[in-house]
Amino acid sequence: MRLIFDLGLPNQGGIFVDVDHFRFTDAAGQEHGVRVDDDPLTAGPVMGLLNRRVTTAVVQDRKLTLTFDTGARIVCPPHPQYEAWAAGVGRRWWSLALPTRRNRGGGIHP
């Protein structure tokens, strides 16, 4: 699932974050497990974030946490076998959630 954030500046590309398996806590505090590749319908509750503002974005121990102005939250922990999330601006992107070397299994990671 690609989340795109508008920076609100003219001629400025948006920031994007790609996530697949993550926990979403909605504004009412209800937690949802989201597995986009396995079951795309689990992403439905995330649509409530349309036109919402990110208030904090934190990466700690390869875990991404995004908090929104409604109190909703996305938490994407690292995955032992693949990139759990990636972020970028325009054509440049970064993945700070690569699996540890011993768990990569020979996959190619940019």
UniProtKB/TrEMBL annotation:
Organism domain of life: Bacteria
Pfam families in UniProt: DUF6188 (PF19686)
Native organism taxonomy: Bacteria, Bacillati, Actinomycetota, Actinomycetes, Mycobacteriales
Protein name: Uncharacterized protein
InterPro entries: DUF6188
